[in-house]
Write a structure and sequence with these properties.
The chain is an alpha+beta fold and 146 residues long. Helix content is 42%, strand content 25%.
Length: 146
């Protein structure tokens, strides 16, 4: 059985006239779930001892780890070491993005009880929470079963 984990984020690049804005999605294929789980558990215990941070849970987010480790430099070192230790458990990486160019599509219309007109950026901002589902759906359509 193939397992793919998805996550999304908004991506912005400041511009002179307007910012570039798109939704970015990543799908990461996990080849060996048990092996990843075992290696990750060993890794987090060892790193907690080495870097002297409290091991109060199994999974930490970016902001919590950055704060606990004392800043982004230490976090980046931790992240690079961690990735080296567990990367053999990953297969392919799938990248998705969605943008609507205002020069080509200045307004989008949403038809519900009441028809609303949205700018492309407003439309994407309102739908960013559901973009992860669109990435998984697109993956299921485009990658053959194996």
């Amino acid at each position: 059985m193939r397992i793919v984990a998805f996550d999304t984020k908004e991506f912005r690049i400041p511009g002179r006239t307007r910012d570039f804005f798109c939704l970015l999605g990543i799908g990461l294929e996990i080849k060996d779930v048990r092996g990843l789980d075992n290696d990750y558990c060993r890794l987090i215990v060892n790193e907690a001892k080495r870097l002297n941070f409290p091991l109060s849970r199994r999974v930490y987010g970016f902001y919590a780890l950055t704060r606990m480790l004392g800043g982004q430099d230490t976090f980046c070192d931790f992240y690079m070491r961690s990735l080296q230790m567990i990367r053999s458990h990953f297969g392919k990486i799938y990248v998705y993005f969605m943008t609507v160019y205002p020069g080509k599509v200045p307004r989008l219309y949403v038809y519900e009880e009441r028809t609303e007109s949205k700018t492309p950026v407003d439309f994407l901002n309102e739908h960013k929470a559901g973009f992860v589902v669109l990435c998984a759906w697109k993956y299921s359509e485009s990658v053959p079963d194996s």
